[in-house]
Amino acid sequence: MASEISERVELAKLCGSRDWSKAIRVLDSLLAKSCTIQDICNRAFCYSQLELHKHVIKDCDRALQLDPTLLQAYIIKGRAFSSLGRKDDALLVWEQGYEHALHQSADLKQLLELEELIKLAKQDKNNSRENHVTESRSSKNLSESGHNNNSKSSETSKKQISEPEDASDICSKFGNNAERLNGISDKTGGKSPMPVAESEPCMNGKSYESYMNNHKLGDTPKLRTESRDASDICCKSWDNFGMQNDLSEKAEGCKKDDRAMGGAHKHDKLSYDSDFCNNLIKTSDLSSNLPMLSSSSGDTSEVRSKSSNKTEIPNEGGDEAKRNKKFCVTRISKTKSITVDFRLSRGIAQVNEGKYASAISIFDQILREDPTYPEALIGRGTAFAFQRELESAIADFSKAIESNPLAGEAWKRRGQARAALGESVGAIQDLTKALEFEPNSADILHERGIVNFKFKDFDAAVEDLSACVKLDEDNKSAYTYLGLALSSIGEYKKAEEAHLKSIELDRSFLEGWAHLTQFYQDLAISTKALECLQKVLQIDMRFAKAYHLRGLLLHGMGEHRKAIKDLSIGLSIENSNIECLYLRASCYHAIGEYGEAVKDYDATLDMELDSMEKFVLQCLAFYQKELALYTASKIGSEFCWFDIDGDIDPLFKEYWCKRLHPKNVCEKVFRQPPLRDSLKRGRLRKQDFAISKQKTALLVAADSIGKKIQYDCPGFLPNRRQHRMAGLAAFEIAQKVSKAWRSLQAEWKHSNKSTAKYGKRTRRRINMPSQNRGGAGCSSSGFSDSSTSYGIAEDKTSGRYMMSWQDVYSVAVRWRQISEPCDPVVWVNKLSEEFNSGFGSHTPLILGQAKVVRYYPNYERTLNAAKTIMKEKMFVQNKADESIDISKDEKLQDIMDAKTCSDLYKVVGEDFWLATWCNSTAIEGKRLEGTRITLVKMGEHGYDFAIRTPCTPSRWDEYDAELAMAWEVSW
């Protein structure tokens, strides 16, 4: 109790000396101990002295939540809206307060004050309309009679002095750069505009507030530093400080959102409102006479400037003050706290203008005098963040927290910085702490939701973003990220609704359209995805990301030539887009334009990179270029000589499949001959695109057959190119099998022996010389000069045409390799020695918290199969392939009761796998290991629940025998 009394004594002294920043800190401390309505109103009053009007509004909203009849809060909140130029909102708030006062016992002084405020606001509104009409008529009269010009100018000048100006006219300018950043066009009315709230002392200069649009695709996110002291920092883009997904950014102007009454405004992905006026005074001597107002919250008063130019400065409450004739002008002495506040505001202005070095210099001066000044630390930390000096930024935010643990903005800022460095746990902890200070902050919920999404905690992201849109129904960025998070957890209907809501709020929201496009593409709804992209290009024809997305979609649909057109346009707009460049190279590669493909692959390899994802593309570009050169060297040969599995070194194929750095490959494997060498040996045959009736019939039949391979499931785009290649592969297989079958039938007819003699036929290995430079494998590692493969051959002893199961599959594999050359499709038994330790496939049903759209439909079936196998075998295998007994302690019953893979993991207690089985057709009574079902913990709340198929040499031998027997039986 004694400490509280001492704090209140200190509070009175600080307010008496106009040290509002420290007064706010004391009130923070008092509110942390005991939340009283009067202290909340007192803090709102102190914020108003520093012109942090959005903080005023937030505190008043908080007070009104606790007591909806509190007239003082209505008065202060209305004045804050008025100071922001939001006259209609101010009038509405005052009318709400007046209505409450009429229906219950209320402070008569405040009731009369509200009545007067409403009266003046309505008069002001009417005067504004009359002035608009007068000015229009004046303009007309001026054109007719020039002699009235001076008198009307004088009259207009008087009106400008007597009437309050809008926030956009009064607010001090930050320069052209600041106008661009904040989207507000500012005009200074006179040399030193200094509107002051009628009942509250105020620093010179009217603050403004920049309302940011919700993180558009391409928005450069903005920040504010919501200090407990004298500053809100409105900033430019965090660039990679923001947590944006894989989409390019484009700056967009900011708009005010006058619809929100309770301080709920639009927010950027990493943007915040700013409530600070930087150009507080335009005199060179900070110690000159600075007019300030001293009054209680219930008084009305006016400030008149006593500056040397004797100019009377208009103030917001001028008309009202003149009517009430309540003037109270005092002078502020030359105090350190006021000087510090001015320097702080100049530092903030420098941050707003992008002059980060200058801002840091100003904050350094303040911190030399007071090394623990939290607001200066937050300001400098923000400037460091914009310079990408994230470690320094985090250090400053941490010092600010040490100095003032109640500085919620410092927690938020540090959370952002940590997220940008990939420190997900620390980032979430800091943002959670920031929420303790503002539990109903849509802004922080939005921020934490995006961080959760970026770090793949989709359930938490859905929770945060859902709470955010309840508080801020117009937050389009929150809606689009909510759509992404819902889609990730398989809630596709709700996800679509959220995406549609985001673009309903803003039909020009590029990011929203792009995310909706990606949503439809992920579900393989190509028509809707293309419609969305058309909308995007109608909004902005030079939006490079749209061309990339459409190129990606067309590529997935097998429309490679159309994709090339879009990707080329995208690259003409943004030539450094490595994703576009690599994708165009692969499209050229697929359609046989090897010269253009090699050129694009080389350009990809030459690019400067800034992320690991892009480095992986460079690695792939190396392998794809080599394969393009290999294919070009075979273009003049028959298709059967195209043999990646026989000609390409196993080490190369292994590194290609694993996307590894090609350093070892470069050292150990011969490179393919350059394109010009292939041209010298035999010119690339010009492709014949002339379509005859026979070709048309063949292609129509191939397309019809190929369509049968299409999965009718979410996530699988129909791919015309793949369909056609599959159809042509079926034709070739049919021809070869038919020839082998006819050969066998002819032998049967002319044979005098029993058909039983041919009940068992052996495969025969034949050697085919490699056509690749350097011999088979094209390797310096001592690989043999001939490639051994299973081929179709004529048995000279019997004249019989032989064919193995692998011969059949090899035809299909070759067509699959040529249909999409960037997909690594190879025979696993022809890889390097890595094959000895296993080389298999991984088909995830759940990855982390994400439900994989293509495979999740098999989740229930797979989970039930796993439970059945566990019940039968009574054990599973851990990572070390050791058995885990699950027959004790009622574990089996818990396993059978498990509804999710999470429940299953809790019973076993560690990562595990189990195998399905199948009965052998080659050896009666033998059981073969089928596929494996694996469950691995990922992070705190996620799992990798997948179907894996390992391919070890022993497994290969077993299934080779099975397939050989099945093939023999089919004959």
Describe this entry's structure for a reader.
Helix content is 54%, strand content 7%. Among the domains are: 2-128, Tetratricopeptide repeat domain (Serine Threonine Protein Phosphatase 5, Tetratricopeptide repeat); 542-608, Tetratricopeptide repeat domain (Serine Threonine Protein Phosphatase 5, Tetratricopeptide repeat); 610-837, no CATH class; 841-949, no CATH class. With 971 residues, the protein is an alpha+beta fold. The radius of gyration is 37 Å and the shape is elongated. Strands 8-7-13-12-11 form a 5-stranded antiparallel sheet, covered by helices on one side. A two-stranded antiparallel ribbon has the order 1-2. Keywords: TPR repeat. Residues 288-297, 778-789 have a biased composition (Low complexity). Pfam families: TPR_16 (PF13432).
Topology:
Blueprint: H1 2-16, H2 20-33, H3 37-49, H4 53-66, H5 71-83, H6 87-102, H7 108-144, H8 149-162, H9 167-170, H10 176-182, E1 291-293, H11 318-324, E2 329-331, H12 336-352, H13 356-369, H14 374-386, H15 390-403, H16 408-420, H17 424-437, H18 442-454, H19 458-471, H20 476-488, H21 492-505, H22 510-522, H23 526-539, H24 544-556, H25 560-573, H26 578-590, H27 594-606, H28 612-634, H29 644-647, H30 650-658, H31 663-668, H32 675-681, H33 693-706, H34 720-749, E3 765-769, E4 786-790, E5 793-795, E6 800-802, H35 805-819, E7 841-848, E8 850-851, H36 859-873, E9 875-877, E10 883-885, H37 891-897, H38 901-908, E11 912-919, E12 927-938, E13 942-949, H39 953-970
Antiparallel strand pairs: 1-2, 3-4, 5-6, 7-8, 7-13, 9-10, 11-12, 12-13
